[in-house]
Amino acid sequence: MSAGSFVFEELIAESGNSTMRIILREAQAEGEVGAMLRAADCGWEVGPRGIALWAIDVPAHVNYASVRADLMNMADVGTIDLEEGAISGLHRVGLG
Prior knowledge:
The chain is an alpha+beta fold. The chain contains 3 helices and 4 strands. Strands 2-3-1-4 form a 4-stranded antiparallel sheet, with helices on one face. The longest helix has 13 residues, at 64-76. It starts with 17 loop residues before the first strand and ends with a helix. The model has no long low-confidence stretch (mean pLDDT 91).
């Protein structure tokens, strides 16, 4: 471990939000994903210019199953790659 590295020690409290990460595989996916996330009331951060990596915040009040289904459909056709980083307990219940 290098100096200045962050180390996870423990979870103090869960916010209820979930985190997903995607990599855009096709240029037109940017507009489609952005529009879907805005409509779902999700936030996101984009990697440095030229890197198509997005970190998506799915707030506790958002229907995670619906956002997940939309992104999985895009992944199935190959426009994005999807990783579910951290799914809140609240959102896990909604997945059944």
